Amino acid sequence: MNTFLLRLAVAIILLAHSIPGMFDGGVNGFGRGYLDQEGFAPLGVPLAWAIKLSHVACAICLLWGKWIKPAAIVTIFILVAGIIMVHGREGWFVVGGGRNGMEFNFLLIIVLIAIMYPNGWKRRRY
Question: What is the model's pTM?
């Protein structure tokens, strides 16, 4: 199965989620205003930049079709951390039945797994 459309869609989402904050102070605000207050001080800002730069790197890997599994694993780890730290408390729905919930992160995780394993999990027989 060709995964290019899925890779393209996730790359666009990751870039749209990351790049604007790199130029309008959003990354620094996320680091100082949220991560530092959640106990990551004084590493909140560097951690926020690492998260956003990892999203950009994952998008590039997805578009290029190289190093997809390592990039997806890092991104899935970040998405799970987002569910645990932020979105899980807000419930399931992002809009409609709630606000800022975890349904979108869940979908991205499943799509990244589908990209990593386009033919499903196959056991190797030796």
Answer: 0.91
pLDDT 10s digits, 56-74? 999 999 999 999 999 999 9
For the chain, how many structural domains are there in total?
1
- What is the 8-class DSSP label of residue 55? H
Q: What is the pLDDT of residues 84-126, one digit of tens each?
A: 999 999 999 999 888 899 999 999 999 999 999 998 877 767 6
Q: DSSP string spanning 38-78? A: IIITTSHHHHHHHHHHHHHHHHHHHHHTSSHHHHHHHHHHH
108-117 pLDDT, tens digit per residue, is 999 999 999 9
Report yes or no on 125 lying in a domain. no
Asked if residue 124 is part of any domain, the answer here is no
Asked if the structure places residue 66 within a domain, the reply is: yes
Q: Please give the Cα distance from 52 to 88 (Å, whole number).
A: 20
| Domain that includes residue 53, residue range | 4-116
DSSP assignment string, 81-96: HHHHHTGGGG-S-SSS
Q: What is residue 102's DSSP assignment?
A: S
